Amino acid sequence: MYQTLLTALEDNIFTITINRPDKLNALNKMVMEELSKAIDEVYTENEIRSVIITGAGAKSFVAGADISEFVGLSVDEGKALAEKGQQIFMKIENSPKPVIAAVNGFALGGGCELAMACHFRIASDNANFGQPEVNLGLIPGYGGTQRLVQLIGKGRAIETLLSANMIDASTALKYGLVNYVVPQDELLEKAKSILLVINTKAPIAVAECIKAANAVYDEIKNGYFVEINGFATCFGTEDMKEGTTAFLEKRKATFKGM
Ligand code: COA
Question: pTM of this prediction?
């Protein structure tokens, strides 16, 4: 169905694998278009409860936007490229279903930005993160300057942006950029084990948690109001009645997403 992505649905977990290993999974126009379509599937397909984004091969998650497509772009074309990329990554960030990045190697430039747009990240021990755009006379364009500051703090982020230095997996763990570092052959298993737990929770409550947490970084929204509304929304759901009743009846809740 996709030319540059592999997708699989198992146990309600949708795995999207960016599949251009010979180019270290660089994000060319087609990958971005297909990624956008795959995320649309996440929003619309009921069987999808959660998502893993990873890269094909043992070397790279995504080594950035495809640099070969940058040559000869005008200022206006550069602006359009960044706008499109930011739109797609915001769709990931605002997904009502959890999206985890399973970072299996280089996560550079657009690859680091893609990982940071996901709700959280797990890395293999050979992972390396970075925003090397200054080496190209560029800056990140898919949200990297913003999300790197949010995730690791301004001082570390600015040093990383200006130096183009890579952040290795153990440092990424120390910085809070990733939640776990595991051997590469355990990476997908680890991501799946976390999502299998999340998949048992009430889907509307899960979506409202994501919405409220995202509001922290949204200057237009007041996160506390978003939380009040999310809390209230849950009171109108069958799942909240089921969850509270199940607790009081000392049984396990079964959620329907309603
Ligand atoms: N865009 C386009 N092609 C890329 C790419 C990118 N971002 N990153 C890697 N590739 C391609 C290389 O051109 C090479 O293609 P070729 O075999 O046809 O020559 C192939 O992927 C393998 O990469 P190579 O550089 O040979 O691997 P390496 O192990 O020597 O180095 C990196 C790995 C990640 C350090 C190096 O590829 C790199 O610096 N990539 C660019 C990172 C970057 O600047 N990203 C931000 C872009 S805005």
Answer: 0.98
